[in-house]
Write a structure and sequence with these properties.
Layout: H1 12-29, H2 54-80, H3 85-108, H4 117-121, H5 124-142, H6 144-150, H7 157-166, H8 169-177, H9 182-196, E1 200-203, E2 206-209, H10 222-228, E3 232-233, H11 235-245, H12 258-268, E4 271-272, H13 282-290, H14 297-304, E5 309-313, E6 317-321, H15 328-346, H16 355-365, H17 389-399, E7 403-409, E8 412-417, H18 418-421, H19 424-428, H20 433-448, H21 453-460, H22 465-477, E9 482-487, E10 493-498, H23 500-507, E11 516-518, H24 529-536, E12 558-562, E13 565-575, E14 578-586, H25 594-611, E15 615-618
Parallel strand pairs: 3-9, 14-15
Antiparallel strand pairs: 1-2, 4-6, 5-6, 7-8, 9-10, 11-12, 12-13, 13-14
Amino acid sequence: MLLFGLTQPITPIQIHWGNMVSSVVLAMALAFEGQEPGLIERLPRRSVEQTLSRFVLWRVGFVSLLFFAGIVGMFTLAEARGATLEEARTIAVNTLVVMEIFYLFSVRFLNGSSLMVQAILGIRSVLIAIAAVTVLQFGFTYTPFMEAFFDTRPVGLADGLMVLAVGPVPIGILEAEKRVPHRHAGAKAAVAEWTRAGGWRRSGTTRRPGRRGRHCAPGPSSAIAQRMTRPFLDNRRAKRLFLDRHLLLRPGSGPGRGADLDGVLDALGFVQVDSVNTLARAHDLILWSRRGRYRPRALETLVARRRSAFEHWTHDAAVIPMAFYPMWRLKFARDEARMRARWPAARREGWHGEIDNVLRHIADHGPACSRDVGGDETRGASGWWDWHPSKTALEFLWRSGRLAVCHRRGFRKFYDLTERVIPAEQRARSRDDDEIVDWAMSEALRRLGFGTSGELAAFFEIATRDEAKTWCAAALSEGRIIEAEIGMADGSRRRSFTTEALLDEAATLPDPTARVRLLSPFDPALRDRARAERLFGFHYRIEIFVPEAKRRYGYYVFPVLQGERVIGRIDARRADDALAVAAFWPESGVRTGKARRSGLMSELDRVARLVGVQGVGFSEGWLRA
């Protein structure tokens, strides 16, 4: 500006203030940041490569130009509107600081998008730094002491809003710049050179370190190299692996009963039991979606007659393969300790004193339901949800393993002594706590395909979160599992644990069946709502407890899957002798063309046969935009 004889928009001492605020307060917040997804995969700068690469020079120049345009533009505009020199300079300094705040979000992710919730919210240090800068900047602009020292003036509301409006402009431009191909050319060239040198061997969709003893080009130490070559599983393959583990990728052709149903239950790990029956109960719909010939009586047979499955809890009430029963001993003990600690305050008084009475009643008279115990107790009008003391004792004994569900009548559970329900061979098997945790984590990984320690722990809800972290660290060091980067629906990557075998499997999976599938809201593929949203980009919440006027969709709507994509959700229920479809909401970007509508109609016809109705009826305007 001085070279051209123009007025400086910011004085030297004001520049010093801006540098102190941005370099000290804002920049220090980055020291507490976690790494950007995929950062550790990037190759190190080669020794012959210049520090000031063409990309770095371009980035410095481009950002400088953006800031120059914003600051000078606001300064010039303020003067044109009649502001004094001091007022115009104050506006220019505030523009600089606001642009620095927004630039902080962009610079946190060099290559990945910063326009995501997790990127915008950042971590606590970033938000604290922004709050601190905001306070300092208000002081700089409005306190008499600062005004005298820095020669500033108060900024009016209209000018302040203009400053805030200009601030986000650079981040929008820089986000667009991240997509320019030139910025990735150098990285691709380096990858190609490293690969030709033998640093990586390729298999399917993964990248893995070269074999021990194999000649490799000079590079970083083996530990760093292993981190840098963490396998990557793209989102399409990740979804296929996950769906295949849940028996949803390929057509299911079994009879859906007997040994075949045992196999389905074992593959899934469990099926959640739920009471809502607007169309079909959750467990029946889950199993039917894998085996079209399945009918509800088949699961009752497994639990009540063949005794090849039992009922208990994972994250919720579930039917579980009987072979897993010995592993539930740890859950029995932990549930009992939790109930003893919490239920005295959460349940009606007197339940603990009813434990022996309930046990004696069942021992003497056989299986009982909640109606059969505590006949002289005061009961509420709600019936189903009335936890009178004897019912609470009944549930306590079941959750702690001393009783077992022997059968259901309707949806009502009947309990008996465990030794009368659980086969002796399963009761005789014992495992110590470490063995049970190892089993729970290993089996969860086998069924999920990949997952964080928290996701693996949440699968059976046997291992604690701390036990899960310890197990993952040990299994990783022993080479039983590996770390991989899993592609998410929004383009980000999530570091997860998996195995070489699972990654090899993902690379060879077939294309998914084109069948349209109506899924239970409690389907194991969608039960973990956060995981489903990350992997499929599908946000789902049950609105049963939402007031009708505030529901976005309906009381109980069903996710609809086609191939490897969740294409929408449907409000369907039994009504007299028909299947009534109130609405189908396709997901954003999903076209409901003739072929897709035909597939949906075929699925509804199949559901009608499952629930025993004669046809399908549609409300007017059922196909929503």
